Amino acid sequence: MFETAPQPLAAPVIDTHCHLDIRDGDRHPGSTPDPDDLLEIAAGVGVTRVVQIGCDVDSARWSVQMAQTRPEVVVGVALHPNEAPRLQLEEGRDALEAAWAAIAELAVDPKVRAIGETGLDYFRTDESGREIQHESFRWHINLAKELGKPLVIHDRESHDDVIRLVEEEGAPETVVFHCFSGDAEMAKYCASKGWYMSFAGVVTFKNAQVLRDALLEVPDELVLVETDAPYLTPTPHRGKANGSYLMPYTVRAMADVRDVSEAAMATTLWNNAQKVFGPF
Questions:
Q1: What is the phi/psi pair of residue 54, to 5°?
Q2: Radius of gyration of the chain (CA)
Q3: Which tens digits make up the pLDDT trace of 128-158?
Q4: Which listed CATH number (3.10.20.880, 3.60.15.10, 3.40.50.2000, 3.20.20.140) goes with 13-277?
Q5: What pTM was estimated for this model as a whole?
Q6: 25, pLDDT greater than 60
Q7: How far apart are CA 26 and CA 86, in angstroms?
C-alpha cells in the first residue's frame, strides 16, 4: 500500500498542500489507506503537520469535519478551477452559485486557514469554460480578502492571466502559488510582490531544471514545500501514489539546489508555513 519511507528529516516540516481524501485520482473519503495511517507515517519521517485541501463542496465538508479531531491538520477550501466550469456547464448556474455559498459558509470555520486551491487551469479546461474560471477565481480572491485568509493559487499553463486577475481584484495580504510552475523571471516577479511560492515533488524530476532555477530566485522568507499528494510523487517513486511521508525527498532536493543544510532548509520551511497558515 505504501512505498518505502525515506529516512526522517533532520527537523520537522509542514506539508502545506495535500489531499487526504483522494485515492488514485478519485475522491473516496474514508477509503483505505486511512487518513490517520497517512498522518502517522508522515509524522514518523518528520512531516508532523499538514494542510488538507478540499477542492469541491463534498471534499471541503469532509476536510473540515476530519480536521476537527486532528490537531495536526488545518484546511483550505475552494472550488478547484476545473470544478467551477464543470458545475455551470453540466449542472447549471444555480449549482455553481450554491457551491460558492457552501464554500463561503465552510470558510469561516477556525480550522479553515486558507481559501484555495483556486485559480486557473488552461490544461484541462478549454475556451468554453475559461470565462467561468475567471469569474470563480475573482470570487475566491474577494472571499479571501473578506475573511483575511491566505489565497492558495492553482496555476496551470495560465501564468499571465493568474497574475493579471489577482492584480485587477487586488491581492489578499497573503498569496501562495501552490505547486509553483513558473520560471526564474516569474519567481522574481512573485517575490517582488511578497507572494509565497510552494514547491512539490516536480523539483526532483530530471527534466525540471527550469523549476530548480526558479527555486534559486525565491527569498528564504517566501519559500514553502508541499506534496499535492496523491499527485506529483517525487523521485525515486515517481509514477506511484504520493503521500506526505514522501516529502523528505523534496525537502532534500530543495536543500541541495539552495546549497543549505537539510536542517536549515526544513527550519525555513516550517517557519514560513507557520507564518502563512498560523499555529496548529
A1: -100, 125
A2: 17
A3: 889 999 999 999 999 999 999 999 999 999 9
A4: 3.20.20.140
A5: 0.96
A6: no
A7: 16
